[in-house]
Amino acid sequence: MEHPENSAEYEGLVVNAGVDHQDMVNPYLKNMRKNRTKLFTTDEYVEGILKGDVTRLSQAVTLVESTLPEHQRIAQEVIEKCLPFSGNSIRVGISGVPGAGKSTSIDAFGIHVLENYGGKLAVLAIDPSSEKTKGSILGDKTRMEKLAVHPKSFIRPSPTAGSLGGVARKTRETIILCEAAGYDKIFVETVGVGQSETACHSMVDFFLLIQLAGTGDELQGIKRGIMEIADGIVINKADGNNVEKAELAASHFRNALHLFPVPDSGLIPEVLCYSGFYELNIDKVMKMVFDYVEKTKESGYFQYRRNEQAKYWMYESINEHLKNNFFFNEHIRTMIPEMENQVLGGQMTSFVAANKLLEEYYQLMHNKNVYE
Ligand code: GDP
């Protein structure tokens, strides 16, 4: 049919017939996608990692993050073989609310560490929200411009695997692979909201809390129990006419810290002001971290904390496994909506419903064992 706009009324305007939508802009892309998940043998991954081959390391981390059973099987083997070569690093957790200046600071801290303390630096992240929000993927390369192009740094955004437990476990496993690849400084960035800070704390030797002056966050931090897990508190953006405010906030924090019991390390957290953007006092902040590590190594607390963390992760893994096993069980999955309805409708109490589900699950597990 002739297009109405081709009528004399719209003189000067010609409407051409459209073309069919193409399947794909680049037909070769399909094949490239397939190649991306090419698998190597466990030994090939391990060999590459131990040689410090960044590509092979990245590929192994992709397997760690994958939910496919075949990928997980290889990943676990690789981790096990890398384990004896891991542990020889300083792990630093860096936390702060969005906008506190984490990425700007990590860029500055990272370059300072590489230039003054040598070695290699891996920047990892724990951000369980990244799957939902997409935009806030911590550790994104573009957010750390200098580090991203530094030959001795390895930046990996947060895994996007649902539950916090899952995301944190993957980050912890990635630490092992990075250490085996020779990264002796590990930064773990985490967003300063919710439980991810506790998860981060459970895998680092030093937990650095970035705060801003004059946001009322001082009190929030105290309320949320975050002060208890901070090994050092730093006030960012202490530049220009913000310096005085930052100093004031620092003294508030110092006073507040006196209200808490002395941490197990025996070291009361230091509070410092700095500017990530203008690179002021970066050296002092990093010195605080490295001094702490040195002191705790001498006192034995460093190893004690790592042992405690290893224990914690054993239990965490069991919890995570049991939970997944239960909730991903086909039969349980079909039962849950009905139980939920009964609870919501007041026909059953929460405890009875939970018991029914668990009994059913145990029965299923029992039968499974009998027939296996
Ligand atoms: P993140 O969300 O915690 O990673 O924060 P960003 O590093 O993305 O920083 C948030 C904003 O604060 C950006 O606009 C930065 O330019 C700014 N910023 C970061 N550090 C400083 C600083 O030291 N001083 C000042 N004045 N601004 C900063």
Would you give an account of this structure?
There is one protein chain. With 372 residues, this protein is α/β, with parallel strands linked by helices. The chain folds into three domains: 32-78, Single alpha-helices involved in coiled-coils or other helix-helix interfaces, CATH 1.20.5; 87-298, P-loop containing nucleotide triphosphate hydrolases (Rossmann fold, 3-Layer(aba) Sandwich), CATH 3.40.50; 329-371. Helix content is 53%, strand content 10%. It contains 16 helices and seven strands. The protein has a seven-stranded parallel β-sheet with strand order 3-2-4-1-5-6-7, with helices on both faces. Strand 6, helix 12 (243-257) and strand 7 form a beta-alpha-beta unit. Helix 2 (42-50) packs across helix 3 (54-65), helix 2 (42-50) packs across helix 4 and helix 3 (54-65) packs antiparallel against helix 8 (164-180). The longest helix has 27 residues, at 301-327. It is globular. It starts with 28 loop residues before the first helix and ends with a helix. The mean pLDDT is 86. It binds guanosine-5'-diphosphate (GDP).
What is the H level of CATH, i.e. the homologous superfamily of the largest domain? P-loop containing nucleotide triphosphate hydrolases
The 3D shape can be described as: globular
Identify the CATH architecture of the largest domain: 3-Layer(aba) Sandwich
Average pLDDT number: 86
Q: What's the CATH C level of the largest domain? A: Alpha Beta
Helix content: 40-55%
Quickly give the structural class. Answer: alpha/beta
Biggest sheet, strands in spatial order?
Answer: 3-2-4-1-5-6-7
